[in-house]
């Protein structure tokens, strides 16, 4: 391949990339801006899906909190999600539907992992109430016991939790 042919091939690739960016579906007016102003994750998902399918949902994240780093990506087809047993998810979701439990998750993610540290936060209620909420979160899989009286958000739950919070915040 000559130098001119190589330059022409490179220019064609650049024009194709620019055309794709200009013709991609714009965000609805209420949608907050995405990283770098484009739908790069969505475009990548679309490229991996069959054209005749019903679509897919993907969430992904890279998170650093309290000196811990989490990378996570998960996706499901729309058919899988619509065919799933939604009532089965009620316990997992209802565990998040309490202000004290959300506060507990935030505190544990922030580094307060022992019941003693958590009990120092007055807004969380009595020690009995604290243990009740910790049991609810643990039973639903949002917390894991990592030693006597110590808790952590399981690594596989960090990005999903933040994705749920992002969706709830609209």
UniProtKB/TrEMBL annotation:
Q: Which molecular function GO terms apply here?
A: DNA-binding transcription factor activity
Which top-level group of life is the source organism from?
Bacteria
What SUPFAM superfamilies does its record include? Winged helix' DNA-binding domain
Q: Which CDD domains match?
A: HTH_ARSR
Which SMART domains does this chain map to?
HTH_ARSR
Taking every annotated instance into account, which residue ranges of this chain make up the domain HTH arsR-type? Answer: 91-170
Query: What is the designated name of this protein?
Result: Helix-turn-helix domain-containing protein
Q: Which organism is it from?
A: Micromonospora profundi
